[in-house]
Amino acid sequence: MFSRIPITDKVVFVTIDDGIEKDPAFIQMVKDFQVPLTLSLADTLIKDDYRYFEQLHATGHVSIQNHTLTHPLDMPSLSAQRQLEEIAGQQVKLHREYGATPYIFRPPGGNYDKRTVAAVQQADLKGMMLWRESMEIHDMQYQTAAHRLRPGDIILCHFRGPAQLKGETMVQMMTNLYRHIQDQGFTVADITNYV
Ligand SMILES: [Zn+2]
Questions:
Q1: Cβ-count burial of 16 within 10 angstroms (0-12 exposed, 13-18 middle, 19+ buried)?
Q2: For position 139, which CATH number holds?
Q3: pLDDT higher than 90, residue 162
């Protein structure tokens, strides 16, 4: 389990979860900005349009990781068998849809127990990724009192659109995020080069 990477370079990692919003303009943004992104996808939230994430994958700037089949927000309330089904089942789907073999698991809501850890191992994933900051509409929520990014921090975002962002778009939210990162003197790196 990790929520940052122990490095001193001024880089951070941007991760985007779930998959509810599917804004075509964001695909163009990924192509234009060429910022490496880690996507943790839940089947129930992407299955109405698998192709959207195929297009994101095809940009070459994203890696696809596992975020369960049905996005249960309380994994610890599930049996060991159900937890395994959630994770192993999503491995199969992500491989079928994208040819991807995820090796990082992000538990919905950050909630997990020792059965989750065991299921992650049984499903042949290598680690579980939490986060240090989460991106809201305009600002980041920090888990530490300093309210500053630190080297190696992992930032959580979500695929969100006007319905979840009080009228703002995914592209506007990501622009706000990139500006905060740049203002603090950081650049974004690809986490798959570190873990
Ligand atoms: Zn989620």
A1: buried
A2: 3.20.20.370
A3: yes
pLDDT of residue 180: 97
Q: CA-to-CA distance for 94 and 104, rounded, in angstroms?
A: 12
pLDDT score for 145: 82
Neighbours of ion ligand 1 (CB under 5 A): 17-18, 108
Task: Evaluate whether residue 161 is within a structural domain.
Answer: yes
Calpha distance 161→3 (Å, rounded): 25
How far, in Å, is the centroid of ligand 1 from the Cα of 32? Answer: 26
Q: What integer best gives the mean pLDDT of the chain?
A: 97
SS3 content of the chain, % helix, strand, coil (to 5): 40, 20, 40
CA of 10 to the centre of ligand 1 (A): 27
Task: Determine the structural domain holding residue 55 and report its residue range.
Answer: 11-193
